[in-house]
Every structure is written in structure tokens, then in C-alpha cells.
Write a structure and sequence with these properties.
The structure holds 2 protein chains of 2 kinds. By secondary structure, chain A is mainly alpha-helical. Chain A contains 15 helices and no strands. Chain B has a two-stranded antiparallel sheet. The chains are: A mainly alpha, B mainly alpha. At the A-B interface, helix 2, helix 5, helix 6, helix 7 and helix 8 of A face helix 1, helix 3, helix 4, helix 5 and helix 6 of B.
Chain lengths: 284, 283
């Protein structure tokens, strides 16, 4: 009797789903509306923004984009950010790939201690090393250089990538590698010919996370690069925004130029982005 | 052989992080402008921290920031993730939408909200035209009282969706049988959330709380971008004070002591984290 009455109650109390969707759509509006406003404003002239600051553009113009591109020196700053991002990705993949391989395959004595150190190290606050690092870098003439910043990004993002790649490699079966070793391959050949082709999804994830972090990075960029010709898009955007603070059309167009490549890439590879970022927990 | 594979990682870490971190300990006992020799002054910098009211106010702001981020994004994330875990249609779509703000660069995020919250042309005057005058003319970032929560609001816009996705991933891993058992016992949705979902995602919850604690003590970007610590120090946090001491006032020795003080707090928290992990809270 009892079980029957419960199952009856369950079917009768099965709640309608629409309140869930109302709440979820409200949250989605909160997430997307500011970006929609950004797109709207990028299509307006200054005069129209004065009359209609947040609504959809009534007479859309596209001239803000080429103007922001030239006035904001995007040819130079995009190049700088592209160098920083690709340099970071390549370095992190090489450094973390080698380390992860050693930690997962080479039966290293003390591997556990290294892992613990990486785990603790990824929680080390910037504040504890920033000041001496800055003056060390200026003594080495590495401030105001892109490579100086790239080296810092390597150090910051490799530990996370190492942990990610290691967990990936641990899950790969070793049979192929053993076969290659029997055929006389050395460790470097095993790594490049066997392990890399099998583990590229892990590398792609690590590359996406490190690349996103480098592209969006602000704190080290503003501290270590003052030269306008070497600034990445993030810090140059801040200067641009201060210069044209009342010209929302122009600053909005510049903002879109910065975030559009990232959002497009994210939409195409969102599963990989989300799993990588969720595992690393890098504060953007 | 194995160590040579690890060498680049270890060397980089020593040069960029570990070495400078150790140097910070030394410089925190010195009077140092950043260039030239450092003069040993013992505990002077730490004594100064105890009496530096700018530092104390900044620390208070960090704690307010922490209180905001321990509640608002976590509640939004739990709420949204729970709703999302209950539906099947469009689940992927909402997950992607909520995550998008997290990939937006901080400078652009700040710029968007500076426009939307502008006292003359932003949301306040726009709503006033529609007959809702409550927000009209409020200078969110220019008011002593509102600046800190307003900057936190902007940071949270890009943060809560990430927290939601972490929670959602954890919720999807909770054993479905537990929900069925709870339903058989007559538990409603809210009781299922309290008695099945929350215990089931506890490791993730602990992880998010600890990340929040560490990052709230370090917060810098949004404050530096939007208010630079102003108006009149209303948004000054330890990181911005330290930054000014090191690079504007050339008090690198004192800045090192400030950094070390904050890092000590973070370190204590990491220790608690590791202790909890050892107690079996697998994260």
C-alpha cells in the first residue's frame, strides 16, 4: 500500500519544468546582456551613444572597428599578444610535456615530492615573489622584453600543465612504448614518436588553457612592459580606454577585437576549454 | 635521464618563483629602494605593518571582498548548477553561455561595466527614463561606500559562471541511486539538495572555498583597472598597497614584508587544504 501511495504522489508531484527555465534564462541574460551591449555600442557613432547609450543601434556603422584598429595600434599590440601567446603555448607544452613524461613514465625516485611541490607551487601567491623578480628582471635587462614576460608565463603555467598532462599520460597504456623500446628506440624517440601522437588531446587542452591565460594576462604585463611598442592588447587597451574614455563606440569596438578571437575559439572547442580550465583552476 | 626531463620545469620555477620568494624573506628585513644595496633593519618593516593604518584598511577591504566572494558567486553557482542538473534539454547551451564571461579579458570586462554603470549614460538614467528612478545618478565606482562592492560585482560577473560549471560537473558525478533513495524516503527537491547534492559535491565545495580565500587575499586586477584603489582609498587592498610601495614609493623592502605577510595567510590556508586532503577529502 505504502509504496503505491508514494509512487502516486511522485507522479502527481513531478514538478513543472518551466520555473527552472525561467531562472536559467534570467541567469543567461545576466551573463550575455553586457556582451550584447558591447556589440551594440561598437556599432554606434558618438552622437548616437549620447542619445541611446545602451539600446540596439538605430543607424549601425562599422567605422569604429577600423578606427579602433589604427588608433589603438592593434597591428602592433595584436602582434605582441600573438607572440606572447604562441611563445607561451610552445614553451609550456615542451616544458610540461617533458616533465609530465618523466613523472608518469620514468619511475623517478621522488616523483611524489615533485608532484606535491607543483601542487603547492600553483597556490603560491604572486605577492611573495613579485618584488625581487621585478628587480632581478631589470638587472638582467628582461623588463620591457617579450621574452622576459614569456619566461614568467612559462614558469606560471607549466606546473598546472604538467599536472594535467601527467594525469593524461598515466591513463595511456604503456604497451606501445614498450614495443618501441624493444625495437631499440631511445627515450626521446619514444616520447616524440609514440607518446606525443597518442596524447595530443591532453596537449591541446593544456595549450588552450595556457594560451587563454597568456592572451588575457594583465598583472605581469603591466608590471614588466612599459614600452608602448611592446605592450600586449590588454595593457594597451587600458591606455586606449583612458585616452578615449567618453568614446564608447571606439572602446567597445576595441574590446570586441580583443575578445572575439577567444570567444570564437571557445565556442568551437568549449568541451576541451571547460574541462581544462575546471581542472586547473587558474584565476583569469 | 629522468631528471633532465624535469630540469627545465624545476630551473624555471627556481628562477622565477622559488628564488625570488626566498629573496622576499631577506628583503622584508631590509630598507631597500629596489636599486642599490639593501640595508638590514631587522623587524622594522613588520613593526611598521602593525601601525600602518593604510595597510589595516586595505586588509579590511580584503576581508570584505572575501565575504562577498564566499557568498554571492557560490550561492549563484550552487543555485544555477542545481537547476541545470535537473534539466536535460538545453543543458549544454546554458553551460556554455554561463562560461563565456570567464574567457573575457579583465580589461574588457571592466570597460563594459564602466559603461553600463555610468552615472550619466548607463543603466541608472536609462531605467529612470522608463520610470524606475532608483539607480539614477549613482556613481557606482566614484562613491566611497559603493566602489568596493561595485568592483566586486564586476569581478563576480566573470567568476560565478566558472564556479557554476565546477559545481555542475561535481553534481553530475553524484550517484543517481542516492537521489532515488531520497525520493523513496519522501524527500522534496530542497531536502534532496541539502542531503544528497551538497554532501556529494563537498570536495568541490571545499576546493572552491579555498580558491576563493586565496584569491580574495590577492585580488589586484579589477581594482587596479577600475579604481586604482580610489576614491580616497575606498578600494585599496593589500595587493594595491604593496604595488604602490614597491613601484611608486620605492619602498621595496616594506613591500616585500607586506607580500610575505599576505602569503603567510595564504600558506596557512594551503596547509589546512593539504591536511583536509590527507583526512580523505579527495579533491
Amino acid at each position: 500500500m505504502r509504496s503505491i501511495s508514494i509512487s502516486n504522489r511522485r507522479t502527481s508531484r513531478e514538478p513543472a519544468r518551466w520555473p527552472y527555465y525561467v531562472a536559467l534564462i534570467t541567469l543567461a541574460f545576466f551573463a550575455l546582456a553586457p556582451l550584447v551591449v558591447l556589440v551594440f555600442n561598437s556599432l554606434k557613432s558618438s552622437a548616437e551613444i549620447g542619445r541611446n547609450p545602451l539600446g540596439p543601434p538605430l543607424s549601425p556603422i562599422f567605422s569604429n572597428f577600423p578606427q579602433a584598429f589604427t588608433e589603438g595600434n592593434f597591428a602592433i599590440t595584436m602582434r605582441n599578444s600573438a607572440i606572447l601567446t604562441s611563445g607561451t603555448i610552445i614553451g609550456v607544452c615542451v616544458i610540461a610535456g617533458m616533465a609530465a613524461y618523466a613523472l608518469s613514465r620514468l619511475d623517478l625516485p621522488g616523483a611524489g615530492a615533485v608532484l606535491l611541490y607543483l601542487f603547492v607551487g600553483s597556490a603560491v601567491p604572486v605577492q611573495i615573489f613579485l618584488v625581487p623578480l621585478f628587480f632581478l628582471w631589470s638587472n638582467l635587462n628582461l623588463t620591457n622584453t617579450l621574452i622576459g614576460l614569456i619566461i614568467i608565463y612559462w614558469a606560471l603555467y607549466s606546473p598546472f600543465a604538467t599536472l594535467l598532462l601527467r594525469s593524461y599520460l598515466v591513463a595511456l597504456p604503456r604497451d606501445f612504448e614498450d614495443a618501441a623500446r624493444i625495437d631499440g628506440a631511445n627515450e626521446l624517440q619514444v616520447l616524440t614518436r609514440v607518446v606525443l601522437p597518442l596524447s595530443w588531446p591532453g596537449f591541446l587542452t593544456a595549450a588552450l588553457v595556457a594560451g587563454l591565460a597568456a592572451w588575457n594576462e594583465f598583472f605581469f604585463a603591466i608590471t614588466f612592459i612599459q614600452d608602448d611598442n611592446l605592450k600586449p592588447i590588454t595593457t594597451s587597451f587600458l591606455a586606449f580606454q583612458n585616452q578615449f574614455s567618453r568614446d564608447w563606440g571606439l572602446t567597445s569596438a576595441a574590446g570586441i577585437l580583443i575578445i572575439l578571437p577567444v570567444i570564437v575559439l571557445f565556442l568551437f572547442l568549449q568541451r576541451r576549454f571547460i574541462s581544462g580550465l575546471a581542472s586547473g583552476g587558474l584565476k583569469g | 635521464m629522468a631528471w633532465s626531463f624535469l630540469a627545465p620545469l624545476v630551473i624555471l620555477n627556481v628562477v622565477v618563483i622559488l628564488g625570488p620568494a626566498i629573496a622576499t624573506v631577506y628583503y622584508s628585513f631590509t630598507e631597500w629602494s629596489g636599486i642599490g644595496p639593501a640595508e638590514f633593519v631587522g623587524l622594522e618593516n613588520y613593526r611598521r605593518m602593525l601601525t600602518d593604518s593604510e595597510f589595516h584598511v586595505a586588509l579590511l577591504h580584503n576581508l570584505i571582498w572575501l565575504a562577498i566572494f564566499l557568498t554571492v558567486p557560490i550561492i549563484m553557482g550552487l543555485f544555477g548548477a542545481f537547476l541545470l542538473s535537473q534539466i536535460t534539454r538545453f543543458q549544454m547551451f546554458f553551460r556554455v553561455v554561463y562560461f563565456i564571461p570567464y574567457v573575457v579579458a579583465s580589461v574588457v570586462n571592466a570597460s563594459i561595466w564602466q559603461n553600463i554603470l555610468d552615472p550619466e549614460r548607463g543603466i541608472g538614467p536609462t531605467l529612470a527614463k522608463l520610470g524606475i528612478p532608483w539607480l539614477n545618478g549613482i556613481a557606482f565606482f566614484g562613491s566611497q561606500r559603493l566602489a568596493l562592492p561595485s568592483v566586486a560585482f564586476v569581478d563576480n560577473w566573470h567568476w560565478w559562471g566558472f564556479v557554476l560549471v565546477l559545481f555542475l560537473t561535481a553534481m553530475q558525478a553524484v550517484d543517481k541511486d542516492l537521489y532515488d533513495a531520497a525520493k523513496v524516503d519522501g524527500a522534496g527537491r530542497w531536502q534532496q539538495f541539502l542531503n544528497v547534492t551538497l554532501p556529494g559535491i563537498r570536495p568541490t565545495l571545499v576546493f572552491v572555498v579555498l580558491m576563493t580565500i586565496i584569491w580574495s587575499l590577492l585580488v589586484f586586477d579589477y581594482i587596479y583597472i577600475i579604481t586604482q584603489g580610489g576614491p580616497a582609498g575606498a578600494t585599496e587592498v593589500v595587493a594595491t598597497v604593496m604595488y604602490k610601495e614597491a613601484f611608486a614609493r620605492f619602498e621595496a623592502g616594506y613591500a616585500a614584508a607586506l607580500g610575505l605577510g599576505m602569503s603567510f595567510v595564504s600558506g596557512v590556508i594551503v596547509m589546512i587544504f593539504l591536511y583536509l586532503r590527507r583526512r580523505g577529502w579527495e579533491v
